[in-house]
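Shift notes (night). Ran Acyl-coenzyme A thioesterase THEM4 while the centrifuge was going.
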Amino acid sequence: MSNTPVSNTPEPGSVESLGMPGVALVGGVSHSDRLIDSDAIRRRRTAAVALAEGLRDLIEDTVCTEVPAEAIDEAARMVAEVRASLAGTRRSRAEMPLVDDPENGLRLYNPAYGQGNPIAPPLVFTTTETGVRATCTVGLAYEGPPMFCHGGVSAMLLDQVLGQTVAAANHAGVTVDLTVKYRRPVPLQVPLVLTGRVLGEDPNSGSRRFFAEATLATESDPEVHLVVATGSFAMLRPDQLARMFEGIVRPSRVRPDLARD
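Came back to this:
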């Protein structure tokens, strides 16, 4: 018997390293296991995350820079060249990204937690005994009032936390109602922590609607809630899901070559 220790570190580009394993999200479209776990897909995810990280920094540089106009002109020219390198093959609105595995909580281009989306902070989730916890740092690209986060961005992040909370409790659903209370401004460039918990079930919904609460605070002062949100989430029936996501094209039908060994 081998005495080599088994590593629990997720493989780069795997669902475990990028998504929320075991958390099924509404609208999941099944992929073949061979496609999800193929070396080509893991490599593609790793490349997409690296690209997004660079672009995320570039976005922040763009809104922070005070260099001369000539330098900005040159940067714009180089960005145009980079865009040309990505323009060869594009997916349509109805095509699922090759890198996604929504049934296991992986939407790589989600604008709140997708590590492959340069406009995502991104939120990094962990599950807790009472719900979920997420961390992120919001940069100047999300500035509303000077020095503080735009209120709409706070609402988006909290809505994602609420949705992830009900999904982690096996009640994944769509947002029906969202109430956001702004108590104090949210500082930029400061580590934030968001927590979510399920409040209960709507007794009149036939076990189809659940309520949740999420809070946003700084990591240095987590007990002072800057923004608090409550929401209700409706679990859709299979026929409702089918109608809502009718016409989605699965990646294996778009690029069958990536599903091969």
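The helical segments are 15-18, 33-36, 39-64, 69-85, 151-168, 238-244, 251-254. The radius of gyration is 20 Å.
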